[in-house]
């Protein structure tokens, strides 16, 4: 059966699948990233994982994969197929397209950003299905976004589109590793909320999930920390929706797991800030931690469509629809 390899490389683990032309997941696998062994070892593990998946396809499906899609964190040059920089993996300028292609004897390889790949999957097959323009925002250790237009994700002229986590929402505020002060992710990421709550409650082990739980119990200290994060997030999102005018705003990542503890005050905060803007639907992401892997598969199928002269799919109705794994 014709299929592609989808690989999502994270700081601690790699998720992979063999994906059929209809979006069906024909085989799934996970491995540790092993970043403690250094960037060269991580790259070797990625290449080995891809080769094993190719062999698995030959064994299970009677043929090797037609293409590979790989989603990685950090700065990515998708046009060149290079992982430019990833602080959590310690690498710089890794030519993943070239390396994987060589290991798999010339197979086409698409390289994408992890959050933009997740946004691609959410836009086509998840919470963005049926909307032509979406903004996907992932609230994790940091904050990143993906701009979805017509079933595709906009990378920008230099591969940096969607970096909403570095919109300044508190001028002159907390320093950010990017070099600015007052960036959104310093106030509304899961790590920022966890740090603020640990300080407020006096428990250095406390995290954002603990803060959300304390909010539901009515803890006033937690409510203050939470509302400050929600207000900062609303300020950043209103900037994004003013510029992009999306139909649907999709919120994912660890902080979104708080459910209505986050979404109820966030919708209220955004509504109180807009004037002439048309408010978008604000909804939770639907695909969970499978989004990056599913998006990598879509990148591979899109690459095949382009390489064979077939026009790239314009939207959800004409694209392979990934099968969403059961929770």
User: What's the name of the CATH homologous superfamily of the largest domain?
Assistant: ATPase, nucleotide binding domain
What is the terminal-to-terminal distance? 26 Å
Which quaternary structure do these chains form? single chain
Overall helicity: 25-40%
What is the topology, as strand order, of the major beta sheet? Answer: 3-2-1-4-8
Structure write-up:
With 327 residues, the chain is an alpha/beta fold. The protein folds into 2 domains: 4-117 and 288-318, Nucleotidyltransferase, domain 5 (2-Layer Sandwich); 127-284, 2-Layer Sandwich (Nucleotidyltransferase, domain 5), CATH 3.30.420.40. 38% of the residues lie in helices and 21% in strands. The protein is built from 9 helices and 13 strands. The chain has helices at residues 39-61, 96-103, 114-125, 185-188, 190-201, 208-217, 220-244, 260-273, 291-307; strands spanning 4-9, 13-19, 25-32, 68-72, 75-77, 82-86, 91-94, 109-113, 133-139, 143-149, 152-154, 248-252, 281-284. The strands form 3 sheets. It has a 5-stranded mixed β-sheet, with helices on both faces. Strand 10 and strand 11 (152-154) form a beta hairpin. Helix 1 (39-61) packs across helix 2 (96-103). The two termini are 26 Å apart. The model is unreliable at 308-319 (pLDDT under 50).
């Amino acid at each position: 059966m014709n299929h592609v390899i989808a690989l999502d490389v994270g700081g601690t683990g790699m998720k992979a699948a063999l994906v059929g032309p209809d979006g069906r997941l024909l085989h799934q696998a996970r491995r540790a990233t092993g970043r403690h062994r250094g960037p060269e070892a991580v790259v070797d593990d990625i290449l080995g994982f891809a080769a094993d998946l190719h062999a698995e396809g030959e064994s299970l499906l009677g043929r090797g994969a037609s293409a590979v899609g790989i989603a990685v964190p950090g700065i990515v040059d998708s046009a060149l197929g290079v992982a430019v920089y990833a602080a959590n993996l310690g690498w710089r300028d890794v030519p993943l397209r070239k390396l994987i292609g060589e290991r798999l004897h010339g197979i086409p390889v698409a390289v994408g950003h992890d959050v933009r790949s997740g946004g691609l999957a959410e836009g086509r097959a998840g919470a963005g299905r049926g909307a032509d323009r979406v903004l996907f925002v992932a609230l994790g250790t940091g904050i990143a976004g993906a701009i979805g237009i017509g079933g595709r994700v906009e990378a920008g002229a230099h591969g940096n589109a969607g970096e909403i986590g570095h919109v300044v929402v508190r001028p002159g505020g907390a320093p950010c590793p990017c070099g600015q002060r007052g960036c959104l992710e310093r106030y509304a990421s899961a790590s920022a909320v966890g740090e603020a709550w640990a300080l407020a409650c006096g428990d250095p082990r406390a995290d954002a999930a603990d803060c959300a739980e304390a909010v539901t119990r009515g803890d006033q200290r937690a409510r203050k920390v939470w509302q400050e994060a929600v207000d900062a997030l609303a300020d950043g999102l209103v900037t994004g929706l003013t510029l992009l005018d999306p139909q649907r705003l999709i919120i994912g990542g660890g902080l979104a797991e708080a459910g209505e503890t986050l979404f109820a005050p966030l919708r209220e905060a955004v509504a109180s800030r807009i004037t002439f803007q048309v408010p978008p639907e604000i909804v939770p992401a639907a695909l969970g931690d499978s989004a990056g892997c599913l998006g990598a598969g879509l990148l591979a199928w899109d690459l095949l469509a382009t390489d064979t002269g077939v026009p790239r799919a314009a939207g959800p109705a004409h694209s392979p629809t990934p099968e969403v794994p059961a929770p």
